[in-house]
Automatic annotation (TrEMBL):
It is found in: Membrane. PANTHER family: EGG PEPTIDE SPERACT RECEPTOR, SCAVENGER RECEPTOR DOMAIN-CONTAINING. InterPro entries: SRCR, SRCR-like_dom_sf. GO terms for cellular component: membrane. SUPFAM superfamilies: SRCR-like (SSF56487). Residues 35-136, 166-266 form the SRCR domain. Disulfide bonds join 104-114, 191-255, 204-265, 234-244. The keyword Transmembrane helix applies. It comes from Actinia tenebrosa (Australian red waratah sea anemone). It is a single-pass membrane protein. Pfam families: SRCR. This is Scavenger receptor cysteine-rich type 1 protein M130-like. The keyword Signal applies.
Length: 267
């Protein structure tokens, strides 16, 4: 009986050792994998490119139904909350096609943990089948220090920072209207790329109102066509949107989404 227990113990030890080695190999493999979105209309969408063993290439769209869980894994690797859509790329890629048959369950840490047909096993694939995904909103901010940064994403405001002003235009009352921001001496509208009540709370504070009542969007720009700010991210406690995280102050002739921020503040 003792001899039998000893054998069982040895077998369990060997099995555990195999599991540990497999996990270590998987972690090392996953570290070699990176993804990016390119040729998209905004930072959160585009053709998926994957880096495997130091080489960037595309993913071939599976002939099976494209599951949103696969987009979830790709988007989470890029620090987005989840995937919104998966399909065929609008702009074909170039270079190698590295992967096909990708079919994730949604809980994987990396696409390399998902079922697929094997790396470089892409016979029959063409770039017209390159995968495209759309991720939800803006990237999640893992470091709270980033939410306190200045205008260019990783710099603090200084004395040389141009003053930022805001106003609400075209409303029936002074506390409501299309949001306009003056940056570097020029007024522009704001693209509504995933703005939320925390962002608008800062706007109302800058205008001297006690809080925000409503956030809406409009699909036209009757005042001017210059647009500032994409993917703004405030905590709600800032005294100015210049203290919020964003993708940088960039002049745009129009919003790709066609939607602009409309604010109503509490009085």
């Amino acid at each position: 009986m003792v001899h039998f227990s000893f054998v069982i113990g040895i077998l369990l030890l060997v099995f555990t050792s195999i599991q540990v080695r497999a996990t270590v190999r998987l972690d090392k493999q996953s570290m070699r994998i990176a993804v990016r979105l390119v040729d998209g209309r905004s930072p959160n969408e585009g053709r998926v490119e994957v880096r495997y063993n130091g080489t960037w290439g595309t993913i071939c769209k599976s002939k099976r139904r494209s599951y949103i869980e696969t987009a979830d894994v790709i988007c989470k690797m890029l620090n987005y909350k989840r995937g919104v859509r998966i399909g065929t790329a609008l702009v074909k890629g170039t270079g190698p096609i590295l992967l096909k048959g990708l079919d994730c369950y949604g809980g994987e840490r990396s696409i390399d943990e998902c079922p697929h047909d094997g790396w470089l096993n892409t016979n029959g694939c063409h770039h017209r089948q390159d995968v495209r995904v759309i991720c939800h909103g803006r990237k999640l901010v893992k470091n709270t220090i980033r939410r306190k940064v200045g205008l260019q994403g990783n710099q603090r405001p200084s004395a040389q920072t141009p003053p930022i002003k805001v106003r609400l235009a075209g409303g029936k009352t002074a506390n409501t209207g299309i949001l306009e921001v003056r940056y570097n001496g020029k007024w522009g509208l704001v693209c509504n790329n995933d703005w939320d009540m925390k962002d608008v709370q800062v706007i109302c504070r800058m205008l001297g109102y006690p809080g925000v009542k409503k956030l809406k969007t409009t699909n036209f720009s009757p005042f001017n066509c210059r647009s500032w700010l994409v993917n703004n991210s405030c905590t709600g406690g800032e005294s100015s949107i210049g203290l919020c995280s964003n993708d940088g102050w960039k002049k745009r002739l129009f919003c790709m989404s066609g939607k602009y921020v409309v604010v109503t503040c509490k009085t």
